[in-house]
Design a protein that fits this description.
Elements (H helix, E strand, L loop, with lengths): L1 E3 L2 H10 L1 H4 L8 E3 H12 L9 E3 L1 H6 L5 E3 L3 H9 L2 H10 L2 E4 L7 H11 L3 E4 L21 H6 L20 H10 L6 H9 L2 E7 L4 H14 L4 E5 L2 H13 L5 E3 L2 H18 L5 H14 L8 H6 L7 H33 L5 H21 L3 H20 L10 E5 L8 E9 L13 H10 L3 E10 L8 H4 L6
Parallel strand pairs: 1-2, 1-5, 3-4, 5-6, 7-12, 8-10, 8-11, 9-10, 11-12
Helix pairs in contact: 3-5, 5-7, 9-10, 9-19, 13-14, 13-16, 13-17, 13-18, 16-17, 17-18
């Protein structure tokens, strides 16, 4: 079994091992930690009182309380509880001949405990790089630290194997060498000079904050004209979602990656609209799903006022009430197929402030699912029941990172979602008002590891766009390097 964290890593392993494993690939389980935990709970959850559990997204958890649900953060603790059942533990310990854990330096205490529990006498192969330990400062990252590798080496009969420092992404090693120097805070190193001189690393500093979308759009277009695939890396959920919407308005075709909660919420909201258009779901469900979507597109613990308005717990402005009434009337008159067409424009029609690209992506996902079920089942109610099951399965796969998202020519994602991603060229967006953690002084060990990971995703070229005249201390030395106007 091969365990990792992200869909992208899983997709790459599946692709790159196909020729090596050949007919044996079907005998290798390749999945994420949370997808594995969810599978255990679905199969044996009744042993710990979780019969047919339903997954509750973090945005839903801010708004509702529901019995029999499991949140993302509860999956691993519940899986560990399940492993205390002797029969389950014995079965798991006998199942695999070898277990491989990717990005082992980023495993938290629960993931490490799960590995130790299911291993038994099985061989355990742990792949890790302490220089890429970037999640130690994140909420709920209990026990994530570079010393995780030391703990593994302390296990009985553990053996360390050092792999050569070779980049399979940038075979020239120009960008990885420069990124390593930046991680060490050695800004005068020859590797950085070489990367800047060659043009493989470009830094554009002191850019106006209010021109962010225009600057990013122009660089994306230039790189696409040169024939490159492009990865755009931004910080914070709300800022990244805003940038996505702005790029959409500037007709930059892209997919936003790594925010499954928002995509799932959009999928649920549109499914509820189709169900309402078919006289199966109540209008209140549509408003609830819209409230979850609005909540999913902003960061922080505070629920947006708009979400409370959609739930009827705050008075909405007359404009919103009118738009909701118009949407309700249009859906009621449309039927299931017509309802799907209406959902495509509902985001714009309601004037929702964020998440437009996720809404579009969800509609593209939903269209073939609706069409397929309406075609297969003559009875509309049966078709929509199957639609509900299909959407539920898709939302589970997204929330547990069990399936990969598409790899279009232009991808936008947060800095922490860059692991396992690569593109011909990358654009790194760093703002003077970004928050990079609680480190105040050099050498910024955690923040520098994040920069290192972000700066090693490109095959050919990385362009850093520094917005604002007063960059954060982590980033400030980069602004002083030679840069292009």
């Amino acid at each position: 079994m091969f365990l990792s964290f992200s869909r992208s890593s899983i997709a790459q392993i599946l692709d790159r091992t196909a020729d090596v494993l050949g007919p044996y690939q079907q005998r290798v389980e390749i999945t994420t930690f949370h997808a594995f935990a969810w599978r255990l709970l679905n199969r044996w959850g009744t042993a710990i009182g979780l019969g047919e559990p339903r997954m509750l997204s973090e945005s839903e958890a801010k708004l509702f309380r529901a019995d029999g649900t499991v949140r993302y953060k509860d999956m691993l603790p519940n899986a560990l509880d399940l492993c205390t059942v002797p029969a389950v533990r014995r079965h798991l310990q006998a199942r695999w001949s070898i277990i491989v854990s990717d990005e082992f330096q980023d495993t938290d205490d629960r993931q490490f405990e799960l590995l130790a529990t299911i291993t038994g006498k099985t061989r355990l192969l742990l792949l890790g790089d302490p220089n890429q330990c970037i999640y130690s400062d994140l909420p709920d990252a209990v026990g994530v630290r570079p010393q995780r590798l030391d703990a593994a080496l302390a296990l009985p009969r553990a053996r360390r194997i050092d792999l050569p420092e070779v980049s399979h992404r940038d075979t020239s090693n120009v960008l990885p060498a420069a990124a390593a120097a930046i991680r060490r805070r050695d800004f005068g190193h020859d590797a950085i000079t070489a990367a800047l001189t060659s043009g493989r690393l470009q830094i554009r500093a002191d850019l106006p904050l209010d021109r962010e979308a225009d600057e990013v759009a122009a660089v994306v277009q230039q790189l696409r004209d040169e024939g490159h695939t492009v990865g755009v890396f931004s910080h914070h959920i709300d800022a990244t979602t805003d940038l996505s919407d702005q790029l959409t308005h500037r007709r930059i075709d892209h997919e936003i990656i790594g925010l499954p909660d928002c995509l799932v919420a959009a999928l649920d909201a549109q499914n509820a609209m189709v169900q309402f258009a078919s006289s199966i779901a109540a209008w209140d469900l549509v408003r609830q799903r819209l409230a979850v979507f609005v909540t999913s597109s902003v960061r922080g613990k505070k629920v947006p006022d708009l979400a409370w308005m959609l739930l009827g717990r705050a008075t909405p402005p007359a404009t919103l009430s009118r738009r909701l009434t118009e949407l309700q009337k249009a859906l009621r008159e449309a039927g299931p197929a017509g309802g799907l067409s209406i959902t495509a424009t509902a985001h714009h029609g309601l004037g929702l402030p964020r998440g437009e690209r996720h809404w579009q992506r969800a509609n593209h996902l939903l269209q073939p699912i609706v069409s397929r079920n309406l075609r297969r089942h003559a009875d509309p109610q049966t078709a929509l029941e199957h639609l509900d099951v299909a959407v539920a399965q898709h939302r589970t796969n997204l929330l547990t990172y069990a399936i990969d998202e598409p790899t279009p020519p232009v991808q936008l994602m947060g800095l922490y979602q860059t692991k396992g991603r690569e593109a011909d060229a990358t654009i790194v967006v760093l703002r003077s008002n970004d928050f990079y953690g609680y480190e105040k002084n050099e050498p910024f060990e955690i923040g520098s590891r994040l920069l290192y990971v972000v700066l090693t995703r490109a095959r050919h070229k990385t362009i850093m766009l520094l917005f604002g005249s007063d960059p954060q201390p982590l980033v400030a030395p980069l602004a002083n390097l030679p840069h292009q106007p």
